[in-house]
Specification:
By secondary structure, the chain is an alpha+beta fold. Helix content is about 25%, strand content about 30%. A hairpin with a 5-residue loop joins strand 17 (about 325-330) and strand 18 (about 340-345).
RNA sequence: CGGGGAGUAGCGCAGCUUGGUUAGCGCACCUGCUUUGGGAGCAGGAGGUCGCGGGUUCGAAUCCCGCCUCCCCGACCA
């Protein structure tokens, strides 16, 4: 049999009863049937960028025909995209299995009840996809599966001898994101690998966590994905220790810091500044009230201090960092109650709302309104000082870690147009506690070594944390220990965004010409371009080469399209991004083909006979 | 949810201000011929409820009202 291009073929696998579809190409060996042919591959590359894609990976994945948008926040995987996806999934699965995790699979469509028990039916709010079945029962599309994993283990296990247990699944998750964006990076439907460890005690949990951390390092290394492991906040999940794997990419939504000197790295939300060392204050003069008209802001206050000769410092001019700014807000508790909170920070610092929320969770900071001022007459807007704050005054007062015992401050005197100078922390006032929620700036001090911090953005590709007993307690997951006592199991929870990884890898590897896949996850190892007229020697030679390559266990994508000019084929080869491009063209007359490295752009003419060896040893 | 931008053929866009032949251009697609190492040429085609609903008008892609969707920034996000 031959097809219209004169290629030898073998009958379709589905047999004569399935007359439609192109015949499978002939191949000699087991492997050869897998040659991907661009002439029949279900793909269409676009010359122009889609208008609705901004982020480079999104743009190129659509342009190269890997994915298509099918729903708000939902994408269809085309054959090439699905191959990449499956390769990513395969690497993750292999590393999970190798690390000793066992794969299970839950439904994505779940009843309300377990999520009611954990409290997340309400806590998750609008992000949860809810629906009713025909009987009117509440159901949900699972955003994550902690509840089900916990219940499953409770269902089957009841002895310490069964632990530790490590299980995982790779499952589609659903979240009604307010704003899906950047293609696969934030969708409303996405695939996640989530795994859980179950241990009898904290030492076991720590061991499980460390093993998992190692497995993630191996996984992301194999995926060819650059990443930084950063300290993270555990958020609503509770738990003591939590780290994120961030791919450092501008398209990312997370902001993190890295130290120039040491290996400190943390999500900006999770940075914890060290508490400043106490300063001796035995010889400090008494605090002095100043008449400071028209100084409702830090800037106006500093100007006034520097304008008055009687207040001049001997060492240097006054700066904003010498002032203590007291920021008021109301904190709404989960029960609905609003309580006032004041936070004292050096005047040159601003509060970071995200960091603040992370620290106040589950409380929610709200602005301090005019009505709130009216309800607290002792608080004078623009002139608030520690004297009117603190639990004794009904306003909880937390200060920045830089406000060390013995440090001296200019701050509000709680009267219009008055400030107080030389107020000594620990002598003249005491806060109710510390809070570290100021904006982290590029160049700030590293909390670990004092070096300079650098800020960057990243995509959260993995998150590991020690969940602890929150879910085990909620669902009564206990086992009997060696003494026959009921003990609550402690859990770890670990996630990798599988579909997100595809976009992150694309984003991390692409260049001006197109996608540029790492070998481990590329749809094919070699892209063979036939640059010759139909009927020319190039066609049969390239066909033979493709089969040879397959036999040598290389995965081949063959551009056997007829009537497509070489320029188009080259551009498509670069756009599609296989690691190696082999051009069978005019050099063939001399027995040569051109081998190109997609990433470096390096090209060399090699004898046809050497190609297989060259490509398979790359 | 707040702010900004945009919905016209598979993709990218023009037309709208000032209503009026059969809604246009490039790419992609189909047929034929030519071409074949960097997104080919010529000729001929197919493809559109102009986001949806209502209104104004003799007449609406164009004007008015309502809604929906998409993109960006922010808020939100185990």
């Amino acid at each position: 049999m031959t097809n219209q291009n004169g290629q030898a073929t073998i009958p379709s696998r589905t047999g004569p009863s399935a007359p439609r579809g192109p015949p499978l190409p002939t191949t000699t060996a087991l492997y050869g049937a897998c040659v991907l042919r661009l002439s029949t591959l279900f793909v269409r590359t676009l010359r122009e960028d889609p208008a609705d894609a901004e982020v480079p990976s999104h743009r190129l994945l659509v342009r190269a025909g890997y994915i298509r948008r099918a729903a708000p926040g939902g994408f269809t995987w085309l054959p090439l995209g699905w191959m990449v996806y499956r390769n990513v999934e395969r690497v993750i699965r292999e590393e999970m299995d190798r690390a000793g995790f066992q794969e299970v699979h839950f439904p994505a469509l779940l009843p309300r009840e377990p999520y009611e028990t954990s409290g997340r039916w309400t806590e998750y709010g609008d992000s949860l996809f809810r629906l009713k079945d025909r009987r009117g029962n509440d159901m949900l599309m699972a955003p994550t599966h902690e509840e089900l994993f916990t219940l499953l283990v409770k269902d089957l296990y009841s002895s310490y001898k069964d632990l530790p247990l490590w299980i995982y699944q790779i499952q589609t998750k659903y979240r009604d994101e307010a704003r899906p964006r950047a293609g696969l990076l934030r969708g409303r439907e996405f695939v996640m690998k989530d795994s859980y460890s179950f241990d009898i005690d904290d030492a076991g949990l720590d061991e499980s966590y460390q093993q998992h951390r190692k497995a993630y390092i191996r996984t992301f290394d194999r995926l060819g994905l650059p990443y930084v492991i950063v300290g993270a906040v555990s958020g609503a999940m509770g738990g003591s220790h939590s780290e994120e794997f961030l791919a450092p990419l501008d398209a990312g939504e997370d902001e993190f810091v890295r130290c120039e000197n040491c290996d400190y790295a943390a999500n900006t939300e999770a940075v914890q500044m060290p508490v400043a060392a106490p300063v001796p204050y035995d010889d400090a003069p008494a605090a002095k009230v100043l008449d400071t008209p028209d100084t409702p802001t830090i800037a106006t206050l500093v100007d006034l201090l520097n304008a008055r000769d009687d207040l001049a410092r001997s060492d240097r001019p006054w700066g904003a960092a010498d002032t203590l700014k007291n920021v008021l807000m109301m904190v709404r508790q989960p029960d609905g109650e609003r309580r006032p909170l004041a936070i004292g920070v050096p005047g040159d610092r601003e509060l970071d709302l995200k960091r603040l929320e992370a620290q106040l969770h589950p409380g929610e900071p709200q602005p301090f309104t005019e009505e709130d001022f009216a309800a607290h007459p002792s608080l004078v807007k623009g002139y608030i000082g520690p004297g009117a704050l603190g639990e004794a005054n009904g306003v909880r007062y937390l200060v920045d870690p830089r406000v060390a015992d013995g440090s001296r401050w200019v701050t509000g005197a709680n009267a219009k147009s008055a400030h107080v100078a030389g107020l000594v922390a620990g002598r003249d006032f005491n806060a109710d506690g510390m809070i570290d929620a100021t904006v982290i700036a590029d160049g700030d001090q590293c909390p670990a070594c004092g070096g300079r911090l650098r800020i960057a953005r990243g995509v959260e590709i993995g998150h590991i944390f020690q969940l602890g007993r929150k879910y085990a307690e909620a669902f009564g997951l206990t086992v009997l220990d060696a003494d026959g006592k009921q003990v609550t199991v402690t859990m770890g929870s670990y996630g990798i965004g599988v579909s997100r990884c595809v976009a992150a890898i694309a984003e991390a590897t692409l260049d001006d010409l197109g996608l540029c896949w790492p070998a481990a996850i590329a749809p094919a190892d070699v892209h063979v371009v036939i640059a010759g007229k139909p009927g020319s020697d190039q066609f049969p030679a390239a066909e033979a080469l493709a089969v040879e390559l397959e036999a040598a266990r290389a995965r081949v994508l063959l551009d056997d399209r007829v009537g497509v000019s070489p320029g188009v084929k080259f551009a498509d080869a670069e756009l599609l991004g296989m690691p190696t491009i082999v051009v069978v063209g005019r050099g063939l007359a001399d027995g040569l083909v051109e081998v190109r490295d997609r990433r470096s752009g390096e090209r060399s003419d090699v004898p046809l006979d050497d190609v297989v060896a060259l490509v398979t040893t790359r």
